[in-house]
Amino acid sequence: DFLSKIIIASASWMAFNAFSFHFSQPELSKKIGCKSIEYCFAIFFELAAG
């Protein structure tokens, strides 16, 4: 349904942001605890979820 499409789209957007952040800001990424791209996804998803 429409709501699940929105959720998938926002999840994809968060994943994209986490991915680009992880590679464009590696030092800052490490500082906030992104040891790997999976950590970055988790952190961004938690931020998105509030």
Describe the structure.
With 50 residues, this protein is mostly helical. It has one domain (2-49). It is 84% helix and 0% strand. The protein has helices at residues 2-24, 26-31, 37-49. The model has no long low-confidence stretch (mean pLDDT 76).
Helix content: over 70%
Radius of gyration, Cα only, in angstroms? Answer: 12 Å
How many helix segments?
A: 3
- Runs in which pLDDT lies below 50 for 5 or more consecutive residues are none
Number of E-state strands: 0
Which word captures the global form? elongated
Structural class determined from secondary elements = mainly alpha
- Main sheet summary: none
DSSP strand content:
under 5%
Name the quaternary structure: single chain
End-to-end CA span: 23 Å
Question: How many domain modules?
Answer: 1
Mean pLDDT: 76
How would you spell out the order of helices and strands? HHH
